[in-house]
Amino acid sequence: MTNVAVVGAQWGDEGKGKIVDWLSVRADVVVRFQGGHNAGHTLVIDGRTYKLSLLPSGVVRRGKLSVIGNGVVIDPWALLAEIETLRGQGVTISGENLRIAENAPLILPLHGELDRAREQARAESREGTGRIGTTGRGIGPAYEDKIARRAIRVCDLADRTVLEAKIHELLLHHNALRRGFGIPEIEGRELLERLAALAPRLLPFAEPVWIRLAELKRAGRRILFEGAQGAMLDVDHGTYPFVTSSNTLAAQAALGSGVGPGSVGYVLGICKAYTTRVGAGPFPTELEDETGRRLGERGNEFGTVTGRPRRCGWFDAVLVRQAVRLGGIDGLALTKLDVLDGFATLKVCTAYNLQGQLLHHLPAGMAAQAAAKPVYEELEGWKESTRGARSFAELPANAVKYVKRLEELVECPVALLSTSPDRDDTILVHDPFAD
Fold first, then answer.
1. What is the pLDDT of residue 287?
2. Please, what's the b/e burial string for 208-222 (b: 16 or more CB within 10 A of its CB; e: otherwise)?
3. 115 belongs to the catalytic site
4. 13 is annotated as an active-site residue
């Protein structure tokens, strides 16, 4: 049996939460390895809805170990609030079933304030066209501090002397920035006391999780690595600069949790049967018409974390094929097929037209990305309902043809097919844990 890494193959919001929950029944450990509380996963279990941001999706399952890896940036107040919310829903969370990497960086209130000030400045200086579309939760500034070697990490909470020195170092940088943005400077003593107060609540979960994961691997336990966002939001390979501040591809599962590359195992990419995006940035197949609105309404396309409506468009096979190649994706989980029920004709982007040149990849340049126009292939839709189907035999013939054509275009087989938000409405084509 192998380990499995679940990653988004579009711009996030592909339905990873349901798929991770579906797979977690067969896993022993679920690991978050990048991102922060800008990510959102919605789980529907026995008719009850759970909304997660930082906690791994396996936390709602009894007998599963959930791990937040060192690649995640953690807002400790948001994490503790999320834990209390789930406890209020009857979910047991303790040091027995949740472990946090001691070397994970913290998101502090100053990070969110800086994030929002920058986005406001971009909007004002370029009439709104320069906005990145950040959630304003401090993810980017926290990663900046990590790379600049001034981050405060979970382990620092255990030593007040070290914590005080690191706060002093951090504020040398941030107070200078705050002066530039006209934000009041931060008093180090106040931040020290706030962090010291939450330390007893957070530290019981902390440990060198890389050691635990190595021991679990040696014992033959199945590990499920859970990614956030999607391939096209990867800071290196996404639609830069309209991306997140971390690497979202499966390779990050190893670095972001402290295991070797060979431990990642089977890579399952999640993608919708159409395309969505939240926030600013290029979107070649976006539909700003009645069809786009119909997709949004039927797919309930609103961000789990922000509540922002998602931009909607036809399936972009060029982008997903690019994600497959960049991320080493072995199989796809295709979600929300049922949203396409009733469309007489469906379109799939098979290439881009860039000023008369035919491209089969999305270029790296910002201007070229914005100018790329989709080249479509039309497929016949279906009138019958696919919602709740649990086998290919229950699908209309044209729905099966649509799935098969997507497999050909993205050069990757469909391993799972989701036909509703309910976890049991899933068609298993290939078991990722079986390889």
1. 97
2. ebbebbeebbeeeeb
3. no
4. yes
